[in-house]
Automatic annotation (TrEMBL):
SMART domains: DHDPS (SM01130)
Protein name: Dihydrodipicolinate synthase family protein
InterPro entries: Aldolase_TIM, DapA-like, Schiff_base-form_aldolases_AS
Family: Belongs to the DapA family.
Keyword list, A-Z: Lyase, Schiff base
UniProt xrefs under Pfam families: DHDPS
Protein's UniProt keywords contain Cytoplasm: no
């Protein structure tokens, strides 16, 4: 049974509006229940939408443990454990395995322009430190480095490297991953919500879709339509993701997504500093988008 399939939701990390912007566990549970009820195939803590880059290792492990306990085996839970430091990524990965994560998502080191050999070494050391499946996470616009398909082909030979998520938005790169994964029992997932249908047609096994925090049913039904070969319904639902994507582009990840969730009654709070509250006039656009989807708002 493959570990990385279907619609995986990179859950936002809910914060309180207190001085510490502490994690709001109650809102976290509310969001988990919403996502599972809507039929998602997995939940992923501390991806880009989970603001891993502004959370401490202790917060990441504590909130991930809470999510794992609340999910209680209903869907797999993936934990983001990548870091600039290989040592930190290994420590995080071991702790995530210990709290019961089903699999790990590991982003490549960012800020530093490391070589392909250094990158291979990083992923190899992290993967070999645990027994659970590992998904490589490629998001070059944020890390400054694309994980080359040739690197994926090498890493795919490691026993527990079982997935690669591509958020490059480059379908040629995605095809390179699909080719590299062939024969290696590695699933390729798309991280660009506007390209889910194209990725499915190329052979992607699933989507890690930030929009599914809010419009879970739309994304889940899109994947079902693609799997069922219902081209007309898939085309309709793929287009139906655009209104929320238009709003998400009005702010930093996940600033406007969290504001939209908040307006829809999920107390996920703001994005963490240095990202500030949404700009003036954004609420109206979020509300118009919620109206489009028929989502009640305050």
């Amino acid at each position: 049974m493959s570990k990385f399939q279907g619609v995986i939701v990179p859950i936002v990390t809910p914060f309180n509006r207190d001085d510490a912007q502490s994690i709001n566990y109650e809102a976290g549970e509310q969001l988990v229940e919403k996502i599972i009820a809507a039929g998602a195939d997995g939940i992923f803590t501390f991806g880009s939408n989970g603001e891993f880059f502004v959370c401490t290792p202790e917060e990441k492990i504590a909130f991930s443990k809470f999510v794992i306990e609340k999910v209680n085996g209903r869907v797999p839970v993936y934990v983001g454990t990548g870091a600039c430091s290989t040592h930190e990524a290994i420590e995080m990965s071991k702790q995530a395995e210990a709290i019961g994560a089903d699999a790990l998502s590991v982003i490549n080191p960012y800020f530093m322009g490391i070589s392909d050999n250094q990158l291979k070494n990083y992923f190899t050391m992290v993967a070999e430190s645990v027994k659970i499946p590992v998904m490589l996470y490629n998001i070059p616009k944020c890390t400054g480095k694309n994980i080359a398909p040739e690197v994926v082909a090498e890493l795919a030979k490691i026993d527990n490297v079982k997935g690669v998520k591509d958020s490059s938005g480059n379908l040629e790169n995605l095809q390179g991953y699909i080719d590299a994964a062939k024969g290696n029992d590695v699933d390729v997932l798309v991280g660009s919500d506007g390209k889910i249908s194209a990725a499915h047609a190329m052979g992607a096994a699933g989507a890690v879709a930030g929009t599914a925090n809010l419009i879970t049913e739309v994304v889940v039904n899109l994947w079902k339509a693609l799997e069922a070969g219902d081209a007309a319904e898939a085309e309709r639902l793929q287009a139906e993701i655009e209104p929320i994507r238009d709003v998400l582009h009005l702010g930093f990840t996940p600033q406007t997504l969290k504001r939209s969730l908040e307006l829809a009654g999920y107390q996920v709070g703001p994005a963490r500093f240095p990202v500030t509250e949404v700009a003036e006039g954004i609420d109206e656009k979020c509300i118009a988008m919620l109206d489009h989807y028929g989502i009640a708002h305050k």
